[in-house]
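Risk register update: the risk of archive-format incompatibility is retired. Evidence:
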Amino acid sequence: MISHYDSSKDKVDVRISLEDEQRTNLDSLSGVYVPGSGNQMVPLDQVTSQVFDTTASTLSRYDRSGQIELSANVVGMPTGDFLNTYLAKLKQEAPQGIIIEEGGMNAEMQEGFTGLLIALGMGILFIFLIMAAQFESFIDPVAIMASLPLALIGAIAGLFVAGSKMNFMALIGIILLMGLVAKNAILLIDFAKQRLREGVEVNKALIEAGLVRFRPILMTTLAMIFGMIPVAAANGAGTEIRAPMAYAVIGGLITSTLLTLVIVPIVYTLLYDFKRLFERKKFLVQTGEEVKQ
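Archived output:
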């Protein structure tokens, strides 16, 4: 660009270039003159030298520094595994002063991963608040929430057995597990509370709840597991992305179903005894005050 052409509406850059026949070989550059000292024009070949080398087709800069962008489509393995291996090797071999940053789809996935963690926490909070409103108690939902860590243990175990790692889709599977596992515990505790209102002792009520609710709990769990098996066993394009979700759901359902029938009744019994003890002390305090009056 050597100048600008200003019209009444636009400002157009003026650029010069050699004719097509003058750009056929490097010898044509010998006829190009550049300003030298003393306002004299000097041939370009007197101040430059011809060197044959490879270079990028375009030069990009970011924040006043040179930038090279590498992009690829990963096939046959999760994107996270590929990036961990590639970045570890790149950081070892990269020269001093080179800054390596992730961008594109992977950066968006990292942001989405953080959002999913927040969604998981909010989901657990809403589950607790809804159950507290339904049961009209803050103690009963605690026993149901005790089943959620059991699902998390199973999800991690399922990923470990399958040789997979925690990724975006696996976290979606864990969020899905929270509702499924809480549903099983709700079936158990709700039946036990019905029997308690009928005057049945707490231990007997929980045993009956386990026997009566075992069949519907097992049916819904098996239905979800068999529904996830095709996703886990699929062998095609893109299956390595969806498979961790199935591994997490299957592992979480297996462990939570087995342990929920044991851990949740134990936790509920302890909380029930604590509640009865608190009510008894409160009654004694109120009775003592009435006697004093």
